[in-house]
Amino acid sequence: MEKIMDVAYGVSVKAGLTLLEKNLLPDILIRRFTRLLLAGRLHSGYKPTAEQQLTDLLRFINSIKEMPIAINTEKPKTQHYELPTAFFELVLGRNMKYSSCYFPKSSSSLEDAEEAMLAVYCERAKVEDGQTVLDVGCGWGSLSLYIARIYSKCKLTGLCNSKTQKAFIDEQSRKLGLQNIDIIVADISTFEHEATYDRIFSIEMFEHMKNYGELLKKVGKWMKEDSLLFVHYFCHKTFAYHFEDVNDDDWITRYFFSGGTMPSADLLLYFQENVSIVDHWLVNGKHYAQTSEEWLKRMDKEIVAVKEIMEMTYGKEEAVKWMVYWRTFFIVVAELFGYNNGDEWMVSHFLFKKK
């Protein structure tokens, strides 16, 4: 009977994905199906006893210690950045922050929420004017540009893996008249660097990594004796898992997060060979859920322009499918972080000092 149920489930998933690609699934069904998958993830992730839960986490930790710093580094880059920057300018906020924002009030605009989270980073990392700052995995430069504007005497170095992102940041720097930003295009897993910094930030990059011990060893070499490392990653509050493309319903992995990791809220506390924890915070998942809902609203508002970008990127025959995929991605992110009132999947902030 169990095998029959599995077959029936597989058939229904394939049928659902076919309807999704043709834009025949209403949002309400996409959201319901997403919540069912999330419930299944929780069922498999939570163990019967606290002892078994810890054993499972330690098994995961030992496994990633045997892995390289990152895997499939090229595929995730094309999954997210194959689209022109113009698409992200339409759906993200003015600061181009492609990560969780912070909504002090539910009525806050996306731009205000971007700025609020950027301010939280600087406050928690104890940023002071005149410091040297490294932004590892800087994306479109939301944090680097923010610090460069607010702390004009700071010298910023951003590390990204996309030439189009560097071009965008360089252009924004010119428009704003900023002379204190230098952007380097490189793969963090192989990048070697001699400089050291007063503050190092990593915002939603660790989720694309595997061997956190080796990664923190590398980052630790870029820290001065009195410098601080601030890490923001999304996570599950209790358990960790890999994003794997094994079943038909592993949709997010296949199209958006190949080689990714969902860390647990405390996972980095097990990797303190080269850094030591100074402070640790959690941010309720509802902030990320609202962030993604805002991205979805903006995409829908600019759907005509979005369609043109999709056609230019994927061709007219594939444009509808990819429009649906991106809308669904934003819906899934919103449902993931909004699940259980934001108290299952959330954001974890860490502040480390050099050991």
UniProtKB/TrEMBL annotation:
Classification lineage: Eukaryota, Viridiplantae, Streptophyta, Embryophyta, Tracheophyta
**Family from the record:** Belongs to the CFA/CMAS family.
One GO BP annotation of this record: methylation
What Gene Ontology terms describe what this protein does at the molecular function level? methyltransferase activity
**What is this protein's record name?**
Uncharacterized protein
InterPro entries cross-referenced by the UniProt entry: SAM-dependent_MTases_sf
Report which superkingdom the organism of origin falls in.
Eukaryota
**Pfam families per record:** CMAS
**Keyword Transferase attached:** yes
- Keywords in UniProt for this one? Methyltransferase, S-adenosyl-L-methionine, Transferase
Q: Which Gene3D superfamilies match?
A: Vaccinia Virus protein VP39
